[in-house]
Design the sequence.
């Protein structure tokens, strides 16, 4: 019998940055260096050359997927003999805390909004669906923020289901990193986008609601395409701690910041606080809940210690 090497069984095709960048073909760059710079998150550098090499090919691939979905939708309508409501294309972006999901989400949002036809692209983060601190504290879950049980999954699924059904003016709750809590009474209105990017730690998880024999969907059932952003644990740890130290001198100085009490402590002590948050919460969540979902993504973006992308893996169809 022929030997089967494990790599030949991989459901992914792997690309070096050079190979991937060629798949841009003739896709024009529609963002300036200044615009790319403005889209980056704190402590997550991205250059115009990286936006071109990584995100233009991805934008091209996604445009093909959107086109294919529209064709599928048209034949389905023909089969059903009736037009269904307008259905957006939904992209999920997953990955650890501090891995740079927000930067990727923002770059993709802007690139896609500039496609010919100017689709309406909305970006929603899952933190809005966390339970408020008052609820988490009552349940003894303040050190479980970001873990599957810290989200109101029923509300999150209702939101996605309404969006997918083409409902108008769907509301999502809003989270503030400054106050570290849900903002009471504030909502984000999503109004029939052509494309929705749904970004968060948990979007590829298969933790479900009590099913009681009913067919309850997973979050990822709503996705037309999913992306996982990856880097080595030690690297993400460093990014998390570096970001905490930058925040110490910036956002934490605001008296409204949940972390204000750390703004004036010694750097060594602040570093220990950040290390503690990483080890006790975010690393555990990464190991137990987030990285195990990586093999479910359609595309994996691998990042090196300097935040640059060093590998792209695309799921074989
Ligand atoms: N304590 C904080 N105060 C202010 N902004 C924060 C804080 N923590 C994270 N952020 C910002 O929130 C966004 C999301 O961060 P995170 O959930 O770690 O995901 P990622 O780094 O993968 O985008 C980032 O733009 C980050 O800079
Ligand atoms: C708010 C988060 C759970 C991220 O939520 P997401 O948008 O991915 O749903 C995370 O940034 C966080 O605050 N984690 C708790 C531990 C910490 O303070 O780092």
Sequence:
């Amino acid at each position: 019998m022929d030997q089967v090497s494990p790599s030949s069984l991989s459901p992914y095709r792997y690309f070096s940055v050079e190979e991937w960048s060629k798949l841009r073909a003739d896709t024009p760059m529609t963002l300036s260096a200044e615009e790319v710079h403005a889209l980056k998150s704190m402590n997550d550098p991205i250059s115009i050359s990286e936006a071109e090499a990584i995100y233009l090919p991805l934008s091209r691939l996604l445009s093909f997927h959107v086109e294919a979905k529209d064709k599928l939708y048209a034949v389905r309508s023909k089969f059903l003999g009736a037009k269904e409501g307008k259905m957006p294309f939904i992209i999920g972006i997953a990955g650890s805390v501090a891995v740079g999901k927000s930067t990727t989400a923002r770059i993709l949002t802007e690139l896609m909004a500039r496609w010919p036809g100017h689709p309406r692209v909305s970006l929603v983060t899952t933190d809005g669906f966390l339970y408020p601190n008052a609820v988490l504290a009552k349940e003894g879950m303040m050190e479980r923020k970001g873990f599957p049980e810290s989200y109101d999954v029923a509300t999150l699924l209702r939101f996605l289901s309404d969006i997918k059904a083409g409902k108008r003016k769907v509301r999502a709750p809003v989270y503030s990193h400054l106050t570290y809590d849900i903002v009471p009474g504030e909502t984000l209105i999503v109004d029939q986008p052509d494309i929705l990017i749904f970004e968060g730690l948990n979007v590829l998880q298969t933790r479900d609601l009590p099913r009681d024999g009913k067919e309850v969907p997973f979050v990822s059932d709503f996705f037309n395409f999913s992306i996982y952003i990856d880097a080595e644990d030690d690297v993400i740890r460093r990014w998390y701690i570096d970001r905490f130290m930058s925040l110490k001198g910036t956002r934490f100085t605001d008296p409204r910041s949940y972390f204000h009490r750390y703004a004036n402590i010694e750097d060594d002590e602040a570093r220990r606080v950040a290390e503690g948050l990483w080890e006790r919460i975010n690393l555990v969540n990464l190991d137990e809940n987030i990285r195990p979902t990586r093999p479910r993504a359609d595309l994996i973006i691998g990042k090196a210690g300097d935040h640059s992308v060093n590998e792209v893996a695309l799921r074989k169809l």
